[in-house]
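Quick bug: Na+ dependent nucleoside transporter domain protein output formatted oddly.
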Amino acid sequence: MGRFQGLIGIILILGLAYLVSNNKKKINFRLVFSGIGLQVLIALLIFKVGFVFRFFQGVGKAMGKLEDFARQGAAFVYGGIAVESKPGTIVNYLNGGFVFAFNITAAIILVCCLVAILYHFGIMQRIVAVIARAMNVIMRVSGAEALSNVASAFVGQIEAQVMIRPYLPYMTRSELLASMSGSLACIAGGILVVYSNMGAAAGLDLAPMLITASLMAAPGALVISKIVFPETEESQTMGKVKLEVKSQYVNVIDAITHGAGDGFKIAMNVIAMIIGFIALIAFLDWGLLKVGQLCHLPFDLSLNWIFGKIFYPVAWAMGVPNQDVNSVATLLGQKLTINEFIAFKNLTDKTIPVVSERGLLIVSIAVCGFANFSSVGMQIGGIGVLAPERRADLASLGLKALFCGTLASYLSATIAGILI
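Here's what came back:
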């Protein structure tokens, strides 16, 4: 039944994209089917081929080791702090205690340092270029949008646009939407490590699912964006994948310094958003509860209740087992309207429990992306600095990109749910 529901989900997701398409006659169905085929291939390789699955499990363990290394750096700063590791058990932070702000700050800073080092030596650019060439051949998308979408699976949404900065002023509106959608559908490497370790702390091996989500998001975003906004102009990079390999850093020390600084800014932004949004949710839930009591409702009115009702049909169509549909629907609502960190935290600490294997797989992939309203603002502002002349286009495409990035994550999750 779950697989049948998933087929309904794929039809629903593609149907929604088709309904809002600005030029249905120009949709390139070869691109659409090749992109979906690429997503299916990625999911099959990871979940059905033993040695590939074991490889990504190994990558997940390596992510865990990264947090151990990051903890060593954080220990110098936080080592004297006593925290609760288990209920009633107080330990030094270095000896196994988990503090969300400390742990994510250290992990993001370390990953940003590593990415900066790889970028300085040209390794990151070459990895991105090789994968982008493959996507360019398979899907026949332009070089600029292929590079941007692939880069988004490794670095942050603004950093991915930096890699195609020379092309931004001349990209078509369809390319621009595809690039923005990919950045919203994917998740940065540093955040991926944090999510994986949050899952591990809860006894969940989510690394293969999260890596699958990140890899499937790039072709998925291209599929949805090219249905919503088909290419009707002539691209300057069609059939070409050329990436500037030159480092922006003076030397490796400069790369590490900038990486650490950028990582700290990202971590502080994450912490600020979480504090602000959780506090705002508490305030809104209090107000909704009072309204519900005044109206004599037979249940406690809350944002989670509202999300659960609005996103219930989507969660069901994606193939989520019946016992988890309401929980997954709530998490989908939190991810889109608040942010993905809140949804993932509630998933891993079981505040909103998902008990089935299929439900856990689907929701982990569906919420693994930057597609939320606050990210749209960050993206318009960030890319607007790189290409000020495109600011009007960016603003007009912002909500379309959010729509495409969200559907791309849902498409990846639905396909993975069918194949598991």
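Actually, after a second look the formatting is fine. The longest helix spans residues 252-294. Closing.
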